[in-house]
Design a protein that fits this description.
This protein is mainly alpha-helical. The protein has helices spanning 2-24, 29-51, 56-76, 78-98, 102-117, 119-142, 146-153, 159-186. It has one domain. The protein has 8 helices and no strands. The radius of gyration is 19 Å and the shape is globular.
């Protein structure tokens, strides 16, 4: 159950970071990008190297190095990150409308440009629901016993897993809406477009 315990630690961290992101995502967007890059780099590198047979202590140091590096990449390329997030969303919409092809590419580019043009709206919606998803997923995982966690990891499901996933979905949607409202109210005087200071 060592792997399940590792995920549980990540779930707790995800809940804490998710709450901050959900309600303060716009004001702390660059910091959140750094933390997101660090989390992806650290957990990915650590799990990968441990799985490859590397000494856990060495894998930890490598994971920290990769995490910090990727965190700074996310931090300094925040405008590119906004564009890419918008482009990914646009591409998904294009896939739903046209099933792929040139239309999806055009909608992806428009989505990226629109995300930059209306960056306050986009960042608020992205961080509020991204944060609420982290909270929902974390609570979903921690609310299950070890047997249900193992069942979920193996790709199967049962009534306890389904109940936990349903609760997590409700938390994600409700908290995301509340977080977005709070952010729109607390940042109502912020500029709609990218300012010179943010570039």
């Amino acid at each position: 159950m060592q792997f399940e315990g590792f995920i549980s630690v990540g779930a707790v961290i995800g809940i804490l970071v998710g709450v901050v992101e959900c309600f303060f995502g716009y004001r702390l967007f660059k910091i959140i990008l750094f933390l997101s890059g660090f989390a992806v780099g650290f957990f990915g590198a650590y799990a990968g190297f441990v799985g490859a047979g590397l000494e856990p202590g060495t894998a930890l140091l490598v994971g920290l190095l990769v995490g910090v590096t990727l965190g700074f990449v996310f931090y300094f390329l925040h405008l590119l990150a906004i564009f890419l997030f918008g482009a990914i969303l646009g591409f998904a919409i294009g896939m739903l409308i046209a099933g792929g092809g040139v239309v999806s590419i055009i909608v992806a580019v428009l989505g990226g440009v629109l995300a930059l043009f209306l960056h306050r709206v986009f960042i608020i919606l992205y961080t509020s629901f991204s944060g609420s998803m982290s909270v929902g997923l974390g609570i979903t995982w921690l609310s299950m016993d070890s047997q249900a966690q193992y069942t979920l990891l193996t790709g199967y499901t049962n009534w306890e897993v389904n109940e936990a996933l349903g609760t997590g979905l409700i938390i994600t949607i409700a908290l995301g809406v509340v977080g977005a409202i709070v952010q729109f109210i607390t940042t109502r005087h912020a500029p709609m477009r990218i300012t010179r200071e943010e570039m």
